[in-house]
Design a protein that fits this description.
The complex is a heterodimer of chains A (221) and B (222). By secondary structure, chain A is of the alpha+beta class. Chain A is 57% helix and 8% strand. Chain A starts with 5 loop residues before the first strand and ends with a helix. Chain B has 222 residues and is α+β, with helices and mostly antiparallel strands. Chain B folds into two domains: 87 residues, Glutaredoxin; 105 residues, Glutathione S-transferase Yfyf (Class Pi), Chain A, domain 2 (Up-down Bundle), CATH 1.20.1050. In chain B, 58% of the residues lie in helices and 7% in strands. Chain B has a four-stranded mixed sheet, with helices on one face. Chain B is globular and about 50 Å long. Chain B starts with 5 loop residues before the first strand and ends with a helix. The relative contact order of chain B is 0.15. The interface between A and B is medium-sized, with 29 and 29 residues.
């Protein structure tokens, strides 16, 4: 089990960002190898490093793992952020998958053609405010505990907090009616590992600007 | 831990079929409550049983679980079809997610507008024969074992079998270049629980026809 995990992706959030958040929250140092050109991707493909010719790919513990959920599941298990038993895992999975559904719409926003951006943003706002955030507020209200599952930090809290930040970037008042989500975000943000990750200079990626989008489109087209 | 799992979905494959397969392969009897009218879905929502207002939903072991992967993960763990350790789980997850990506494309076909269907089908066939099937053939070739992971049956063999059957439904020539996948398909099809599920009269659902889509549209408003 040698060395740090190595993340292979482009220099942007995309589908790798939840992996960065989870490793950071777990206090695990990691390296990043950024794809910058189409040749970089071709090289990884030709090396046989990408099982389905796609990134994200993470080198960890002698494996070359692709598929975001496979990577997240492994990290969560390894660093004890996946609940204490099968039933807690079921709740964590249910909650994480809901967040992933919302994230799927959110992560595409920078890449959506200009004329469709407004409609996608409206969809994000609607789903966040009317479906997803109420569901998680209800979970927290239901048990009154500090974390979503099992009264301790799990991957579900980390992923939710990431999304709370990302959706708020697009819809600044979205958290107004969700006091428990706000409190969760504050609590998780104050954990030493997360606090560090939230500071400038960390490996956390900013919202993808035009330059970043253009670069990504070139690599993956 | 009472009774059989109860599956809530409409009477079609959709996103519930992989769950039916896994339960069947595990030899677990299950009940189904079909959502047939808008009121059925409304009632489930009003009763607070759908965390995100969506199905699939499965009542199992006192839980009301939604989200296909959460349901599959739980069933796989409970019935020991998820590998023996964290590294086997990583391989199972990686393979299963690849299968899910291709399955997602196939699921979406039924709701693809007619003018886009041909292009979608072409893309699916291309991905099938150039990306996904080669990847799994390579896995089997690399270890020469009878199952994808850990030399015994796991969930991902079942997910792959289901996918191979859909690929075959679409175009049987797609499987031709993959002898190890064909052998896996035969072997798995002969496992007693799977064999039973493959027979007429089981809870396995047929290909989705236009009529079923129209009815689903009325209930789910898509």
């Amino acid at each position: 089990m040698a060395g740090k995990p190595v993340l292979h992706y482009f220099d942007g959030r995309g589908r790798m960002e939840p992996v960065r958040w989870l490793l950071a929250a777990a206090g695990v140092e990691f390296e990043e190898k950024f794809l910058k050109t189409r040749d970089d991707l071709a090289r990884l493909r030709n090396d046989g490093s990408l099982m389905f010719q796609q990134v994200p790919m993470v080198e960890i513990d002698g494996m070359k793992l692709v598929q975001t959920r496979a990577i997240l599941n492994y990290i969560a298990s390894k660093y004890n952020l996946y609940g204490k038993d099968m039933k807690e895992r079921a709740l964590i999975d249910m909650y994480s998958e809901g967040i992933a559904d919302l994230d799927e719409i959110v992560l595409h926003q920078p890449y959506i053609p200009q004329e469709e951006k407004e409609a996608n943003l409206a969809k994000i706002k609607d789903k966040a405010r009317n479906r997803y955030f109420p569901a998680y507020e209800k979970v927290l209200k239901g048990h009154g505990q500090d974390y979503l599952v099992g009264n301790r930090l799990s991957r579900a809290d980390v992923y939710l907090v990431e999304l709370l930040y990302h959706v708020e970037e697009l819809d600044p008042s979205v958290l107004a009616n969700f006091p428990l989500l706000k409190a969760l975000r504050t609590r998780v943000s104050n954990l030493p590992t997360v606090k560090k990750f939230l500071q400038p200079g960390s490996q956390r990626k900013p919202y993808e600007d035009e330059k970043c989008v253009e670069s990504a489109m070139k690599i993956f087209s | 831990m009472s009774g059989k799992p109860v599956l809530h979905y409409f009477n079609a494959r959709g996103r519930m079929e992989c769950i039916r397969w896994l339960l069947a392969a595990a030899g677990v009897e299950f009940e189904e409550k079909f959502i047939e009218r808008p009121e059925d879905l409304e009632k489930l929502k009003k009763d607070g049983k759908l965390m995100f207002e969506q199905v699939p939903m499965v009542e199992i072991d006192g839980m009301t679980l939604v989200q296909t992967r959460a349901i599959l993960n739980y069933i796989a763990t409970k019935y020991d079809l998820y590998g023996k350790d964290v590294k086997e789980r990583a391989l199972i997850d990686m393979y299963a997610e690849g299968i899910a990506d291709l399955s997602e494309m196939i699921i979406h076909l039924v709701v693809t507008p007619p003018d886009q269907k041909e292009a979608k089908i072409a893309l699916i066939k291309d991905r099938t024969k150039n990306r996904y099937l080669p990847a799994f053939e390579k896995v089997l070739k690399s270890h020469g074992q009878n199952y994808l992971v850990g030399n015994r049956l796991t969930r991902v063999d079942i997910h792959l079998l289901e996918l191979l059957l859909y690929v075959e439904e679409m175009d049987s020539s797609l499987l031709a270049p993959f002898p190890l996948l064909k052998a896996l398909k035969s072997r798995l099809s002969n496992l007693p629980n799977v064999k039973k599920f493959l027979q007429p009269g089981s809870q396995r659902k047929p290909p989705t026809d236009e009529k079923t889509i129209e009815e689903a549209r009325k209930v789910f408003k898509f």
